[in-house]
Specification:
Structural class: mainly alpha
Low-confidence stretches: none
Number of helices: 3
Helix content: over 70%
Number of domains: 1
Radius of gyration: 16 Å
Largest sheet: none
Mean pLDDT: 88
Number of strands: 0
Order of helices and strands: HHH
Strand content: under 5%
Shape: rod-shaped
Distance between the termini: 21 Å
């Protein structure tokens, strides 16, 4: 697995964990929710850019 994919996965999971924490705690700061959402969106942005950049890699492997 590519190291950038691992980083993207960690960002998405960490952002999800922050959001789950903010939802489960009664008096959570709204900044925790915002930070979790921003981290998730950043991870998804990086992941989709990686997928778009490598979407035709399988065609190069089939030609060889």
């Amino acid at each position: 697995m590519n190291s950038s994919q691992v980083l993207n996965t960690i960002l998405i999971v960490a952002g999800g964990a922050l959001l789950m924490y903010a939802i489960s705690v009664e008096n959570a700061s709204p900044y925790i929710k915002i930070a979790g959402l921003v981290i998730i969106m950043f991870g998804l942005y990086r992941a989709t850019n990686f997928w778009v950049a490598t979407k035709d890699d399988h065609e190069e492997n089939d030609e060889k």
